[in-house]
Amino acid sequence: MESFVHVVILSMLVTTAIAIVRVKDLFAVTMLAGIYGLLSASFFVLMDAHDVAFTEAAVGAGISTLLILTTLSMTGRFEKASVKPQADYRPLLALALVTVTGALLIYGTQDMPGFGTADAPVQTHVVPRYLNDSATEIGIPNVVASILASYRGYDTFGEVVVIFTAGIGVLAMMMSKASSTPVVQTSLMSDHVVLRIVSKMLIPLIMLFALYVQFHGEYGPGGGFQAGVIFASAFILYAMLFGLTEARKVVNNTLVQLLSALGVLLYGSVGVVAMINGGSFLDYDFLSADPVAGQMLGILLVELGVGITVASVMIIIFFTFTARSQKAGESD
Amino acid sequence: MSIVATYLSWALLVLGGLLCISGSVGLLRFPDFFTRMHAASVTDTLATGMILAGLMLQAPTWIVFGKLIMILVFVLLTGPTAGHALAKAALHSGLTPLLPGKSGVLDVDNKPSGGM
Questions:
Q1: Residue B78 and residue A198: Cβ atoms within 8 Å?
Q2: B88 touches chain A (CB under 8 A)
Q3: What is the per-residue pLDDT for A160?
Q4: ipTM above 0.85 for this complex
Q5: Rounded distance between C-alpha atoms, residue A163 and residue A140, angstroms
Q6: B74 in contact with A, Cβ within 8 Å
Q7: Do A42 and A158 share a domain, yes or no?
């Protein structure tokens, strides 16, 4: 029965992917990409990877769809079909290349151990140690959180820096001096009474849920990445319904930019404090007299840093895109 | 008690599933945008509500029950709002509902601009 569900979801994934390639209406493509994310999340739930599923639902189906829609408001809705094929347009060559590469990749999987067999690297490498010792070494129930924030703290630090860099990149490319002048722009949604009232009721709940996800990540699925995205979505919802000018009164640019750096700084500082106390970088055992208490404290602070950076970078990206598209709308 | 709750829960689950299917059929078969949206909204609120109620009867602890209640409240708040926004956007962009003509019969073949 379960494999039947797998087959159904995977074939729906393939169908969605083909539809994404074929459809020319970019609005529909964005929605299909969101559906793709949701289907992947369902598949991850079936594979018992709840943390990954949660991240995929929040990031893949949620905020990335929203950001692509914001981008679409700046570009056009329809894909430009080239009138005549260009000189270097060789679809058959590309198809042959893709087929050969795919065949080689499938041939390569023949040497890999079968799915779920006992001698697969995932069963023999570092994972058994994580699973066996996490309870005594880290002391939190969710092994995913202990791997993400403690055993693999370096990787997560790298991810946070990547997100921070993305925020800087968007700011460097999209922010111009003119955007600092207040755009006198009443929201397009100003007459949507029902939407505004329901959103006003929902925004506090969304923020509360984000905090729950943030601080419950050590006990169940969740953590800084998901919480940051959910927290940012509350602000984005507010900005969409009440206009960018109103939203900037709540969180101004300087504050968000400072916060995005502060998250990375918090993460790095935890590592440095561990070094000062005599351990190595990001070795939370040395944060407290009791190693397990140190691990708990370290994971809490590190996840908080992740959450702050992710939330502020998402807000930065959305605000910058929206300000830009409003300016583009004025110049038209 | 527990047997009654189990049967009631299964009845709710099956009824919710049937409503989901009927909503999907309506989404595919109804003549214009607004009637289709109506079918989708029924799936959104009634079917989801029934499935959640069926799950609530099987909740092992009160925490699970409370979480399901919160999901229900969230769905009941967002579903109709999304439907409202969708209908408003459709009206705003010039899509008119399909109304019966003088003969009182829906003029399906000669629909104004529906059929997305």
A1: yes
A2: yes
A3: 93
A4: no
A5: 26
A6: yes
A7: no
DSSP, collapsed to helix, strand or coil, labels residue A176 as: coil
Tell me whether residues B74 and A192 touch, CB distance under 8 A: no
Residue of A nearest to B76 (CA): A198
Q: Are residues A256 and A150 in the same domain?
A: yes
- Within a domain: residue A307? yes
| A44 and A174 housed in the same domain | no
Nearest CA in chain A to B75: A202
Does A111 fall in a domain? Answer: no
- Domain membership of residue A59 (yes or no) is yes
Residues A321 and A174 in one domain: yes
- Domain segments of chain B as ranges: 2-92
Q: Give CB contacts under 8 A, 24+ apart, made by A188-197.
A: A189/A240, A189/A241, A189/A242, A189/A243, A190/A243, A192/A241, A192/B85, A192/B88, A194/B81, A194/B84, A194/B85, A195/A241, A195/B81, A195/B84, A195/B85, A196/A241, A196/A242
Q: What is the pLDDT of residues A190-199, one digit of tens each?
A: 567 888 888 8
For residue B32, give the 3-state DSSP assignment: coil
Cβ contact, residue pair A195, B74, below 8 Å = no
The continuous run of DSSP H or E covering B88 comes out as: helix B62-92
Report the distance separating Cα B107 and Cα B103, nearest Å: 9
pLDDT of A240-251, one tens digit each? 888 888 888 888
Tell me whether residue A244 is in a domain: yes
Residue A55 tokens read as: 């991240």
Pairwise CB contact (< 8 Å): B84 & A202: no
The domain total for chain A is: 2
The domain in which residue A222 lies consists of 142-180+189-332
Compute the nearest-CA separation of B103 from chain A (Å): 36
Q: Which residues of A touch B74 (CB under 8 A)?
A: 202, 205
Contacts of A201 in chain B (CB under 8 A): 77
Give B104→chain A minimum CA distance, Å.
Answer: 33
A78 & A150 share domain: no
A74 and A152 share one domain: no
Domain with residue A56: its CATH number is 1.20.120.1200
Instruction: For residue B101, give how far its alpha carbon lies from the nearest alpha carbon of chain A (Å).
Output: 31
Residues in A closer than 8 angstroms to B64, CB to CB, are none
Structure confidence by residue, pLDDT tens digits, A152-210: 888 999 999 999 999 999 888 887 655 444 454 554 555 678 888 888 889 999 999 99
